[in-house]
Amino acid sequence: MSYSTPLLIAAKRDGQELSDAAITWLLEAYDRGDVADEQMSAMLMAIFFRGLGSRELGTWTKAMINSGERLNLRGLSRPTVDKHSTGGVGDKISLILAPLVAACGAAVPQLSGRGLGHTGGTLDKLESIPGWRAALTNDEVYQQLENVGAVICAAGSGLAPVDRRLYALRDVTATVESIPLIASSIMSKKIAEGTDALVLDVKVGRGAFLKDRESSLRLARTMVDLGTSHGVHTVAQLTNMDEPLGRSVGNALEVEESVEVLRGGGPRDVRDLTVALASIMLELVGLDDNPAARLDDGSAYDVYRAMISAQGGDPDAPLARSAHRETIVAPRAGVVQSIDAYRVGVAAWRQGAGRARKEDPVSAGAGVEVLVRRGDHVETGQPLFVLHADDEARLRAGHDEIVGALMIGDEPVVETPLLFERVDATS
Ligand code: URA
Fold it and tell me: Residues 299, 372: one domain?
């Protein structure tokens, strides 16, 4: 059966529901090249305004999954569980969480992407480790999961390949910020990855992709329902992304901080969030272990070292450092009222830690050290941030962004929670 693409676009534009057969045809025809980019762009804009109902979204996601392969991890000796974060500033949790959960007895297949814009990418962080390789074959992923228990690597081009083209179109047609399009994009790749269970860390706040709690909750519910309907045991946890996570933002800087946490130390918020997410992951696959104890006894760090070595990396190699630094100091004494995660993320990005276009290189050493926390009392002249960049121009670009990122006042501040709502499958 064939459809008229303009009629399908008009139907969605006018708020009608599309049939399952029409959605499947549309995505297959787009994949074959029989629907043009400009037609798909119009359809994406129609979906942006009109949305997709839950049946339509299920079919849309299934068609995206069916555009490629699905990994089969069923033969592994351990249950599989993954985590996906919607992206934050200083969010290095995956680097710690994957080996930690593996140390507790699960297999963690973290097939990841690169960073775009103000949030960093897990692969970019790990690529600051000399020799480390992001591209693995499906066989290598399987073997590493069996032997080490954790893999963080690039999602191969075979998983939901139509998403790559849709995402590129969304990027240039202002249709990224649509809940059904975000949910289907993320979940098609995670379902195709073949994991038994999945925890979604849905960030809320200034440094998050979606700033308000209500949209984040809707995205979380949509993704949990999609995962559940495809047989993946899925839970979402909303978490606070108003302030940067931890003290470091930038690729090598975040690897260093992750190692501190893996060795039982590191900033409290990074450790607490990692342990909270690990506990949910273990619950989902029915494992009863104590993740905090695995950080303290060194077993998570041992798995991290094995995971890095298995992908050609040297966990003992010194990491890159940027040659240019600047310390930003407090202009007055008082209490730190807020540290704007978005502005810190943009500063690190401008300094070279992130990319504006997919093909841009990133600097391993660039980034921002955040030396104080919200609620700290600071004196005039006390260092607040250290900026790192590979040249003076980038350092200046970061400086211009960071100066307005931190507010100092006289009032004590009320502590805000790190974890908000948890969204479970509806039974
Ligand atoms: N990440 C994705 O993979 N897709 C989106 O649409 C947004 C974030």
Answer: no
- Predicted TM-score (pTM) of the model is 0.96
pLDDT of residue 427: 65
Rounded CA separation 367/390 (Å): 10
Assess whether 242 and 163 both reside in one domain.
yes
Distance CA 239, CA 244 (A): 12
Residues 338 and 300 in one domain: no
CB atoms within 10 A of CB 2: 7
Annotated catalytic residue: which of 62, 125, 189, 388? 189
Does 169 contact ligand 1 (Cβ within 6 A)? no
The one-letter amino acid at 385:
F
* Residue 321 among the catalytic residues: no
Residue 197 and residue 232 in contact, taking contact as beta carbons nearer than 8 Å: yes
For residues 26 and 161, membership in a common domain is answered with no
| Domain harbouring 44, CATH code | 1.20.970.10
* CB-facing half-sphere around the CA of 419: CA atoms within 13 A: 15
Determine, yes or no, domain membership for 62.
no
Look up the domain containing 47 and give its range.
Answer: 5-51
Which amino acid is present at 49?
F
Q: Which residues of 274-287 are buried (b: 16+ CB within 10 A; e: fewer)?
A: bbbbbbbbbebbee
- Is any atom of ligand 1 closer than 6 Å to the C-beta of 175? no
Binding site membership of 185 for ligand 1 (Cβ less than 6 Å): yes
208 lines ligand 1 (CB under 6 A): no
The list of the chain residues with pLDDT below 50 reads none
124 and 29 in one domain? no
* H/E stretch holding 346: helix 341-348
Q: Ligand 1 center to residue 167 CA distance, Å?
A: 7
pLDDT in tens, 353-412: 998 777 788 999 999 999 999 999 999 999 999 999 999 999 999 999 999 999 999 999
How many structural domains compose the chain? Answer: 3
